């Protein structure tokens, strides 16, 4: 094959592969996005039960909604964190009858990010926002105390990572759960006061209904 034909063939292959991955909805994350992967604990690694059903949505999400678990409280070791994730998944799946754990991702006190439903999967953490947000849980009761600083740093890193990888819009809006749902104190009084100082927090809630 001539050099020119090789170039043409290569370009054709590349465009075909990228069209195929687009069509089947795989987000081809750029390689610079891999930097957090060692801190992200996949569903299989924490022993998640399979979802009863699973729907995806397109494009980078415009919102991040911050939650606390209330119960269980802060966990500090990987084994306690796995146990907390299973406890939350069981509550949502078995007691509440949802298809899966409600949140998109969770930050735990062992310094890791636990995969919940995962990016671009319709979740169950805030009505109207489930198909256009990352529902980010910090495991613990933050009514009277803040999450450990390391958890808050990790949450901010993870949000930045989500933007850099194209899962979250650059102009995303960050809300506390209580802003989009009446009758909940989530993410706890102490933590809610803190996230008001975080990048992209917005007081006004857009009417998206
Ligand atoms: C999310 O769901 C609502 C109602 O179910 C729908 O009106 C809206 O268009 C959906 N948004 C996205 C981004 O899919
Ligand atoms: C909460 O209730 C207030 C007062 O009834 C209402 O104005 C607001 O829209 C409600 N917010 C949500 C997220 O439902
Ligand atoms: Zn919440």
UniProtKB/TrEMBL annotation:
Subcellular location: Secreted
Recorded GO MF terms: N-acetylmuramoyl-L-alanine amidase activity; peptidoglycan binding; zinc ion binding
Domain Peptidoglycan recognition protein family: 38-181
Signal peptide: 1-19
Gene Ontology CC terms: extracellular region
CDD domains for the chain: PGRP
InterPro entries reported for this sequence: Amidase/PGRP_sf, Amidase_domain, Peptidoglycan_recognition, PGRP, PGRP_domain_met/bac
Record keywords, A-Z: Disulfide bond, Immunity, Innate immunity, Secreted, Signal
Residue ranges occupied by any N-acetylmuramoyl-L-alanine amidase domain in the UniProt entry: 49-188
SUPFAM superfamilies membership: N-acetylmuramoyl-L-alanine amidase-like
GO biological process, one term: peptidoglycan catabolic process
Pfam families named among the record's database cross-references: Amidase_2
PANTHER family associated with the record: PEPTIDOGLYCAN RECOGNITION PROTEIN (PTHR11022), PEPTIDOGLYCAN-RECOGNITION PROTEIN LB (PTHR11022:SF77)
Family according to the record: Belongs to the N-acetylmuramoyl-L-alanine amidase 2 family.
Name this polypeptide is given: Peptidoglycan-recognition protein
Organism whose genome encodes this protein: Ceratitis capitata (Mediterranean fruit fly)
């Amino acid at each position: 094959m001539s050099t020119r034909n090789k170039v043409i063939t290569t370009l054709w292959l590349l465009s075909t592969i990228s069209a195929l991955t687009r069509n089947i909805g795989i987000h081809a994350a750029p390689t610079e996005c891999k930097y957090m992967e060692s801190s992200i604990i996949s569903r299989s690694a924490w022993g998640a039960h399979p979802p009863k059903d699973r729907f995806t949505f397109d494009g980078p999400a415009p919102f991040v909604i911050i939650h606390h678990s209330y119960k269980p409280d802060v966990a500090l070791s990987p084994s306690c964190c796995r146990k907390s994730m299973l406890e939350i998944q069981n509550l949502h799946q078995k007691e509440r009858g949802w298809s899966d754990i409600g949140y998109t991702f969770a930050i735990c006190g062992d310094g890791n990010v636990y995969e919940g439903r995962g990016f671009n999967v319709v979740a169950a953490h805030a009505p109207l926002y489930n198909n256009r947000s990352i529902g980010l849980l910090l495991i613990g009761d933050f009514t009277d105390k803040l999450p450990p600083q390391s958890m808050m740093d990790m949450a901010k890193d993870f949000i930045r990572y989500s933007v850099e990888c194209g899962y979250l819009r650059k102009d995303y809006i960050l809300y506390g759960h209580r802003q989009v749902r009446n009758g909940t104190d989530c993410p706890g009084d102490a933590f809610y006061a803190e996230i008001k100082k975080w990048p992209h927090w917005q007081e006004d809630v857009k009417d998206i209904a």
